[in-house]
Records
---
Amino acid sequence: MRYLMFVKADERSEAGGMPTEQELTEMTAFNEQLVKAGVMLDGDGLAPSSEGARVTFDENNTPTVTDGPFTEAKELVAGYWVIDVSSRDEAIEWARRAPLGPGGQIEIRRVFTEDDFGDALTPEVKEAEARMREAEARRREELTR
């Protein structure tokens, strides 16, 4: 099962504060543990919301763009991991090991699988999804060459 573990932002991350050398060393060691265990699929830190934007759709499906920063840091994300583990409990155990320090917070959410969508996932939609994922994998591979 894939899980998204995201690190909640705080005042420091929203102010653009970068990790210290010690924090980077600890986070790198944690990421290496995830990789060595074969569970890490992706992960990165995120720039503060002042560099971001929100696109909100009204009742007529009209998009409105709001530039950051956004006021509620506790509702924002500062970084993430995508992991592939056998259970929610295993995802929690990995999150418990993260070197975030006092006040740090990680939210864990399961990533949907095809089975979750039932009959709404028609063969046509399934084929289109597979084509898109293959194209994205090729693009990523080309970027790493």
Note: Helices lie at 11-14, 21-36, 88-97, 123-143.
---
Amino acid sequence: MFRTSAVILIALIVAFLIISLVSSQPWHTIQIFMFEPVSSKAHIGNVIEMAIPLMFSGLALSLLFKANLFNLGAEGIFYFSGVVAASIAIHAQLGNWLHPAVAVLAGGLVGALLSAIPGILKAKWNASELVTSLMFNSILFGVGLYLLNYKLRDAKAFATVSYKFQPTAILDKLVPGTRIHTGLIVVLVCIVAVHFFLYKTKWGYELRMTGINRNFAEYSGIKTAKVIILVHLIAGFIAGMGGSIEVLGMYNRFQWTALPGYGFDGALVAMLAKNKPFAVIGGAFFLAYIRIGADQMARMSDVPSEMIAIIQAVIILLISAEQFLKFFKNRMLLREAAKDA
């Protein structure tokens, strides 16, 4: 926890130094960046709204990373599951609470099935999950965009958007005057469930042991191939729910004409959280907070919002460096132990 806090602090110091060099009013600009996200009810709502999909993607990727699987397929699953949920939101005739529940469940199941493909390839043939998941992102985006353009698109709208969702499919708002929706409750329940799964069940223990050392886990009798497929199914289901909930909670039409970016952002959230479910909440809120701060800074000062990319890059660089140094230190210790033996 201390190391992660130090990484965040260093990244913010670097950002402040750059702001002081770029801005004509650096102190005022830094104040906007730091405090504007909590200056009003609407801005606080924006932070929470942005944190919801980040928590879903961060939770999904933290599970995969916990199993030592570097899978970035949540990006494509987020998009395609949103298309699936939008289709049900447009065409199905269901009741108020049942309609969004069916749409979100369908998106989650589709996400689980799609995520299982790289999982099976990894488990059976040791195919790189990073390569296959990135390839699937492009495939899912292409298929989803085709469905949007040729099956769901509203020809009367002056943009590439779907028909309007039925009112019964849109998620209820929790706080008047904001767009904070019931997806917040769902993702918090998912975080508690994943924590229980990881640390209180036999399957969670097998997942953690597989992530620490797959060869040792197999030697201990754990069927690691099944573990790999299982974690892909669970992570895909969570990511699929996240994409569906984001679409039904924040929009009244499907309007993503590019990959939303939440899947890749989830990797950063998972790294900040050290792959711990409850810490995902803090990681997601931190990333959402600085993004809203950067957006307000771009609106109210002379510093562009792209500043946030620098902060993210520094965080990733420092976390990666920490992991590299830890690996190098472990190898040195093993060599010394071998010499002593």
Note: The mean pLDDT is 91.
---
Amino acid sequence: MSTIQLGAANFEDTIKENEVVLVDFWASWCGPCRQFAPIYEAASQVNTDFVFGSVNTEEERELSAAARITSIPTLMAFKSGQLVFAQPGALPAPALDQLIQAVRELELPDEDEAVDQSTADQDGNR
């Protein structure tokens, strides 16, 4: 699967409806963004179990602000609708591969377990 364009209209649904989504925030004038783009695109071709999205920060200023993007490129990873990674800077291919593997192997607690733990934490603080 190749990279899909994300914007305000489809960002939230894409995150919610897919198990794992990587998002690259970029701009056309950004040199590191242009260097990272082919690495990101190549990874999207190999890792078809992930959704790879791109947000053009120039066209999607409100979305970029809501995501608190202060430097580009910024890469974010979402798993089961939760943000599990966010880091500015272009990654070399081996580092991106390591990130993809780490996100793939990451086990998140069930929502019921997370709620139970949250309730236990609150009860313990009373």
Note: The chain has a mean pLDDT of 90.
---
Amino acid sequence: MTSQVKTRVLLQSKRLSIYLVHYPEGHRVVPHIDMVAHGRLYKLNLVLKQPRSGGQFICERNIFNLIGRAYLFRPDLYQHQVSRIEKGNRWLLSFALTTP
């Protein structure tokens, strides 16, 4: 049995949310677009710990990608996913900002 993703909410407000997320070995994130009720959604994901194998972030279009460790993108506009984590764990600090 594959372990579940564990998400800790560090901050949650109307416009800004910050999460610490643990993705275990064997997990993957299927291609998707995040829905928002109104406004624009921006995400800044900082990869704190990369798995030894797999777990690559794939996005149709990034605003920027800093050496595979920091990604700024629009999850409400562009499809994104994470490949299957073959070995190890993936830790992510995620900042989500909704603007009017």
Note: The chain has a mean pLDDT of 95.
